[in-house]
Amino acid sequence: MIRVVLPTHLRNLAHVSGEVRIDVSGQVTQRAVLDALEARYPVLRGTIRDRETHQRRAFVRFFACERDLSQESPDATLPEEVAAGAEPFLVVGAMAGG
Question: What is the pTM (predicted TM-score) of this model?
Fold first, then answer.
């Protein structure tokens, strides 16, 4: 079971509170986690990634195990702690405009 933490506005949109727990079959990658998240909560399609290209939105960042994973390949394996459910995969809305 993968633990995903969403920013407040996406939790509200998906009508969830706290962490989301999703099953990912096969290799645990950013793509697999986001595919499973969007399959379970279709309202999130297009909010985290572009609907067509599946590229991460500009002001969305991904973190796990105190590491910024935003620039890593979507097909790179996530840390074992995330795959085991010990650490969450965080989706964070970046701030800009200083």
Answer: 0.92
